Amino acid sequence: MGLGSEAGKNKRHRDRETGTLGKLVSLLDFVALADGPMRFTDILSLSDQPRGTLHRQLSHLVEEGLLEVDRDGRYRIGLRLLTLASRSWARNEFRAIAEPHLHRLQEVTGETVHLGVLRGAEVIYLDKVEGQQSVRMYSQVGNASPAYCTGVGKAALSVLDDAELTERISGLEYRPYTEHTLRSPSELLSDISQIRARGYAFDLEEHENGICCVAAPIRSDDGHMLAGVSVTGPAYRVTQQRLQAWAPRVVVAADSIMMDMRNRMGPKR
Amino acid sequence: MGLGSEAGKNKRHRDRETGTLGKLVSLLDFVALADGPMRFTDILSLSDQPRGTLHRQLSHLVEEGLLEVDRDGRYRIGLRLLTLASRSWARNEFRAIAEPHLHRLQEVTGETVHLGVLRGAEVIYLDKVEGQQSVRMYSQVGNASPAYCTGVGKAALSVLDDAELTERISGLEYRPYTEHTLRSPSELLSDISQIRARGYAFDLEEHENGICCVAAPIRSDDGHMLAGVSVTGPAYRVTQQRLQAWAPRVVVAADSIMMDMRNRMGPKR
DNA sequence: AAATTACGTTCCGAATAATGGAACTTTTCA
DNA sequence: TGAAAAGTTCCATTATTCGGAACGTAATTT
Q1: Amino acid A41 CA to nucleotide C1 C1' distance, rounded Å
Q2: Cα dist from A213 to A106, A138, A231, A255, whole Å
Q3: Which residue of B has its CA nearest to A89?
Q4: What pLDDT, on a 0 to 100 scale, did the predictor assign at position A11?
Q5: What DSSP letter does each residue of A162-182 carry, written as one string?
Q6: Stretch(es) of chain A classified as CATH 3.30.450.40
Q7: Which run of H or of E encompasses A105?
Q8: What's the rounded Cα separation, in Å, for the pair A14 and A1?
Q9: Boundaries of CATH 1.10.10.10 in chain A?
Q10: Taking CA atoms, which of A175, A203, B1, B122 is between 20 and 30 Å from B156?
Q11: CA nearest to nucleotide C27 C1': residue
Q12: Which residue in chain A is spatially nearest to B89 when comparing CA positions?
């Protein structure tokens, strides 16, 4: 499945998925990614399925509450997905362990704090604690962003060994979100070697113009779970000096989360 | 599928769902509802599936990112669900239209504001705007609660005609969450007739001890989408007088949301 | 208003995927 | 180390999905 397809609005839905579930989830994804609710024909024209097949697939998804269809025949994502996701989010151990530390970090800095985990070459934000006077950012819980242009992502990548790092960041499309976005593996590798040296990462308007952050890595004992914490704010308020000053705090928060994980989830993980 | 099964911890997973998708989603739901991550054998013992079948089903769910399995063989909900849900939440028209009104209401009252939609006899919370000094409540976006014991739920029910109302609230289990929870259809109907008369609903510690709210209904022009807005807070701070005083504001917010829907989504809906 | 077209739904033989018992491998524990 | 439990793979059987075509219905045109 081709991810990172925020550009590919008119992407056709013809992933050749294996298995019944794969096809249906891919269809679900397709409807979820669309700009708005789609009518049957809209989906059909972007799909390689015959009418009958598509109709039955959509019906099944609706039957399970994964999709909803209004009286105008427009399909959109169903609320069951939201319920399912929220329940699992609330019970997520890692998030729960990290939460108090995120709040503490938020209070100390006054800016927005993020918790994200690395999945492949993407960061998925697991939690977010906003400051009072927070500027609206294009970020939210559950949002997936490329690792190479986010503080949390680069921090998490930095703890990988060279072999796996190279594997993960090769074959990516280095989309220039801003003029500061890193544009190649070599630029990323060079940044990461700095991150390794100092123990924390910066994002200086690399993902979104006017937004900066400082982030520190978190990893489970077995090294199989990679994550990061960050403090983020608007560039006019969050100068590089302030980021620098916060860095030790962010690292302490990350380390505390790791300690708590060790204690609460058993050591050999 | 029996919802509201917070009591049914040891519920077996043997819904006889129809179709491949139904079985898999039911399994997904089962794992999501569990108290914590489950190992293969745990699921097997609570399932009526043969080992081979269950193993393959779980593998398929993992393959699609709907479940994740750690090195100890423990299954939990995958992050893909969170990503999918968050994306659709962000793009939800209704939520987006309501958002500014929710914030305004929050600022006026200083307390937490909820937006919820009615699905059957349950309310699913679509959005929540917290006050600064907010007490942690058992409520969150995506959470599903029985309509009969929540302000939003009762408000939404109140705009139904008697026939559909009776149909929806019959056959429910009236679980007494607190000593103030309504315990029967007749109690609910009597409350609802009052709500109809005054145009807004109260929840006086009916769902959670120490939590009160006032709520007003929202419905689309065709009456097929029922929802509600509420202002919620701790009983020691939120007296019945204050609720009463806020009621007109809540009703105005609800009506404004309806107006905006009419304008933004076309009238005949 | 009648005819036409587009849209959505249902049907059923053929093709495909899921089932589940058993054999097999790996891990755990005494 | 041996034995039991846990987890995985295999494959003939069974059930489900596929998809073309026929059918009904609403929107549009003449």
Answers
A1: 29
A2: 13, 14, 5, 18
A3: B82
A4: 57
A5: HHHHHHHHTT-----SSTTS-
A6: 92-265
A7: helix A93-109
A8: 10
A9: 19-84
A10: B1
A11: B72
A12: A82
Sequence-separated contacts (24+) of A187-193 with Cβ below 8 Å: A188/A148, A188/A154, A188/A157, A189/A165, A191/A154, A192/A154, A192/A157, A192/A158, A192/A165
- Single-letter code of the amino acid located at A7: A
Q: How many inter-chain contacts (A to B, CB under 8 Å) are there? A: 131
- The fourth-level CATH superfamily of domain A92-265 is GAF domain (3.30.450.40)
Tally Cβ neighbours within 10 Å of residue A61. 23
* Substitution target from B88, B91, B103, B126 for chain A, most A beta carbons within 10 A: B88
Contact at CB, A32 and B224, closer than 8 angstroms: no
| Assigned CATH for B19-84 | 1.10.10.10
Q: Token pair for residue B18?
A: 């129809």
Q: Cβ of A21 and B20 within 8 Å?
A: yes
Q: How far apart are the first and last CA of chain B?
A: 30
Q: How far is the CA of B52 from the C1' of C25 (A)?
A: 15
* Chain B positions in Cβ-Cβ contact with residue A37 (cut-off 8 Å): 93
Stretches where chain B sits below pLDDT 70 are: 1-16, 133-139, 266-269
Average pLDDT over residues A14-36: 88
Query: Which residues of A fall within a CB distance of 8 Å from B35?
Result: 91
Per-residue confidence (pLDDT) for residue B221, from 0 to 100: 84
What percent of chain A is modeled with pLDDT above 70? 90
Backbone phi and psi for residue A223, each to the nearest 5 degrees, phi listed first: 75, 10
**Chain B residues closer than 8 Å to A76 by CB:** 88, 92
- Of residues B16 and A71, more confidence is placed in A71
Q: Which two tokens stand for residue A263?
A: 């204690």
Tell me if B142 and A85 make a contact (CB, 8 A cut-off): yes
**For strand C, which residues in window 61-90 of chain A come within 7 Å by CB?**
73
Length of chain B: 269
Bridge partners, B230 (sequence order): B114, B215
Distance C17 C1' – A8 CA (angstroms):
31
